[in-house]
Design a protein that fits this description.
The chain is an alpha+beta fold. Helices cover 29% and strands 17% of the residues. The chain is globular. The relative contact order is 0.16.
Length: 133
Amino acid sequence: MIRYTLTCEKDHQFESWFQNAEAYDKLRKAGMVVCTSCGSADVAKSLMAPSVPKKGGIVAPRAKNPIEKIREEVEKNSDYVGLSFAQEARDMHDGLIPERAIYGEANAQEARKLVEDGVPVLPLPFVPKKKAN
């Protein structure tokens, strides 16, 4: 996993984790990396400083970053639906099931189809801790 600090065209800065550098490039080209403040897909990597241990090999604890705070809020106030995210979001949009806050996982094709069909979805700037079975 690699963490990038990203900046959008409007100078909003945010962090996001990616499996590797190639995953970042692929997701960015597909328009799946968006600003957490304004939703712009015009983002670029910013300069970053590595986390270097202090003498003795101990890194001082750091304050929660904005993505960690977002994760806590999403996990506290939403239901994790795993790989059924696309179907659940579509069913709520179509009025087939009651609306509620959900989060989960969808592949790029499923996410693109939801957006094209007007289903209100937004990529999260983190990978869910829970994994679908």
